Amino acid sequence: MLGGMTATETRVVVVGGGMAGHRVAQQAAGRGREVLLLGEEEHRPYNRVLLAEVLAGRFPAEVAALAALPDRVERRTARVVRIDRAERRVLCDDGSAVGYGDLVLATGSNPVLPALRGLFDDRLTGRERHRLPDGVFAFRTMADCADVDAYLPEVRQAVVVGGGLLGVSAARALAARGVSVVLAHQGEHLMERHLDEEAARLLAGHLAELGVEVHTECRVRSVLTDGGRRVTGVELADGFRLEAQLLVVAVGVRPRTNLAEAAGLTVRRGVVVDDRLTTDDPHIHAVGDCAEHRGVLYGLAGPALAQADVLARVLGGEDAAYPGSRLLTRLTLNGGSPLDLAAFGVTAPAGPADRVVRLADASRGTYRKVIVRRDEQGGDRLVGGVLLGDLDTVGTIAGTWEGDEALSAHPLHLLTTQSSTTGGPSR
Amino acid sequence: MSDATETHCPYCALQCGMGLRPADGPVPVTVVERPAFPVNQGALCGKGASAAAVLAPGARLTSPLVRVDGELRPASWPQALDRIAAGLAGTAERYGRDAVGVFGGGGLTNEKAYALGKFARVVLGTSAIDYNGRFCMSSAAAGGIRAFGVDRGLPFPVADIPRAGCVILVGGNPAETMPPFVRYLRELKENGGRLIVVDPRRTRTAELADLHLAPRPGTDLALALGMLHLVVADGRTDEEFIAQRTTGWPETRDAAMAHWPEHVEAVTGVPLPQLREAVRLFCGAPTGMVLTARGPEQQAKGTDTVSAWINLCLATGNAGRPYAGYGCLTGQGNGQGGREHGQKADQLPGYRKLDDPAARAHVAAVWGVDPDSLPGPGRSAYELLESLGGEVRALLLMGSNPVVSAPSSTRIAERLGSLDFLAVSDVVLSETAELADVVLPVTQWAEETGTMTNLEGRVVLRRKAVDPPEGVRSDLEVLRALAERLGRPEGFPTEPEEVFEELRRASAGGAADYAGISYPRIAAEDGVFWPCPEPDHPGTPRLFLDRFATPDGRARFTAVQHRPAAEEPDTDYPLRLTTGRVLAQYQSGAQTRRVEALNQAAPGAFVELHPVLAERLGVREGDRVAVVSRRGRTVTPARLTAAIRPDTVFMPFHWPGEANANRHTNPALDPVSRMPEFKACAVRVEAAD
Q: Which PANTHER family does the record cross-reference, listed alphabetically (chain B) (predicted)?
């Protein structure tokens, strides 16, 4: 064995008690590995996907808790400060050291905080400087959710900064609590990574019905606070001021990679892993939001679970590989009549080889679009699309997108179940 | 009707009542209606109506066959029986008692199933006995026991179904497999109830539904979890019922919440709005029922899948009260009774457990043997078949055709071929009988009397209407004759009623208690529902109204989570294959493929493809195409239909040889029920030549 080290250590140490870490721990234990899970958060692990539902008051926080881990998994609350690869151990902020046979980094991501004037208190230094004003929250953890919840009784108006998936979800949740919400989005339209202008316009219309006022091309310049550093509103780039007792910042996330970086592992945007979810150290693995696989940072729960399952099989000695995920981005706005939205791939044609097929029904508020690209063999391939308000074909679309196969029939069958009865072109 | 013998159909678990009237001609009886029998009220499907054709002389065996110089040749009964006794005894002597195996069937009467189990344990002293019901009902049985403490297909009479508010039928196609049952679904709709059908194909049954959900094969578990998630999220749980009549809810709720709707949509391919609509229909109705069939059950996670659907019922208070609950649509004619009386590897009569000392003592006393002489639990069906030629070297097989019906059937045919000795008792020369050293021609249906227990747990009486042809004996006579030759003649009566009287005593006090049921009562009462512990007990049409059959009387939630099929599609095998049935054929086809009218209606196997898939593969309607899996290859004509998912192909499994869908079936087993994964495996489709 490896002389002098904790060479007899065979257990799996998982850093991070979020969904990915929880799942690796559960599945690896199910495959006979002894697991130690090191998490920073005191409370039970929860399903992050359900945060907006908890905030919206659809069900209490404990309902979003993840299932208890099997007995084989030991759980400890600790913050890991360093990886000692030579000794194969991690050092924690309480001074303890924990040896590992396999180390799994499931450290997730942190919210990105934009450079808004007044967001940080420049009179202070160190950690204190980064303390947000009262009433300003990121929307990333159950703790954030609880903090927002506790603050809500004093709130009449809220501003959400960021019109991506997370910002839209947060805005809808706040509106469901009876708060009037302004969603301030810097881009030309909502969710521009996923949606074209028309879909975004329909989404904004639906949000308006739920009580969310959407402002696009709207840059927030500063956070306004009172003498006690409580938020009172925001000032926009054009000088206009919006009153708000609550500000939610949801402009994006950044993978937490500092442990990996400090340990000398390859880190690009995330911790780089191969198809076995393993870093360039064969004893160190990474899954979930912190991991970068084939150049992709997913930042979504579905792929995180898929990665965790593959890694658990690898840790169990199986020959498993993660091929990547080709999932649709899904958004559900619950309310009186729920709005469903699915989007994937490119949002607009890239050139003459791309063909757009659209079905829009203004009276029903539905919009369906696919973009197909002619490849060198003359076959059509699905490269992007959106379904809004009518998801009848979402299963077919998801399967086609996932399989990435040449389409054999007119793309219309991807947009309506009616056409599927006639199938492919007649012969 | 007066001159007709009142009996039941020879086929499925509905056990429709019918009359058999003597007729002149090659077929000795005519099937006539028996409108007074409540389950089918006279209605019959094409299989039932044409059932008398299996009695035609040409269709069946009338002489024992013994293999001589590699060929099966007619022989006398004594010769054939001597050969079997020598084959079984010789193997036991040489390799030990467990080297002799017994394989039964869910079509056997209660009396035969009981006698076969007793024969294995008492005469052969082997633990190696199981039956084809393992491929049929075992997941539903395991899931039912786990939740309710007892396994009876339906805890209510079929007549209750139209009085439910909403019925979810998961992976069942009664319009083709059990047509007279469909009247209950139609009545349900006439009464204003809602029907939801879950099936990867838009079957004739799905056509009847208010809502059809078409998940990918092998994802019914995720679908059920997704529905439960929405039930919780929308606050539609029945907290009072959960608190008073169940245990284990918190863990089950946690597991369901980990399956959020958009994730379930990605796994199943069922659009979330449809999932939401299903929950709205199910929870919006005054009462709800979930009925599962082989679709969700015949999976390597079949038991957990059943549990997930039961959990949905329990969380919404839909169990243990009238017009609500979970049930399964049993398949084989005596699929229910056949799993209660001891032909299962781990079981003794009355649904007793073979590893329970009290159960052993009770049954041993009825049998007049020392409890310690009873062998312990043996291997499950697939594992038993898999061990043929290895640990098990001689096999007695009754009422089953595993060459067609077992998973990875090519391999199982090889295993059967590698036995030192195989004896088959059957009505016809089935594909499995063709491999035997000795084949015994036995009585069937209209030629014999015995009880069957239908999908409701109703014990019914099959009556003899005609004398068997010369040269044919009953299975009970076979067992008696073999017991005599193997040195234990007592305890094997050949009169069915006498066997039933002993079965009553053996089952007394067990979960499936028949003690109070008698032939006269069955005749007088149109069947009696078990449990029926005393002669003056009315029987139990509805279970669980006061308490569940668990030690504390509460139903048990089981926390389950979704997992992929044992074999998921990949680059080499990119499609999912699922298998099933067609209207005009039954099981391995051993009976129905010998009926001309049925063969004309359904002459052979085929593979169903969606037109979009067919276009991509360059396949046209009627083209002969090969379906290729890791376990085998079949060649059948292509049938194009938009009623199937484009990522899935379907084959019916009734035919042998290169059309045999079960060549592909993955023998990955459910960890609890030992059910193989019939309903989902990975294949590719290519041109046949």
A: NADH-QUINONE OXIDOREDUCTASE SUBUNIT G, RESPIRATORY NITRATE REDUCTASE
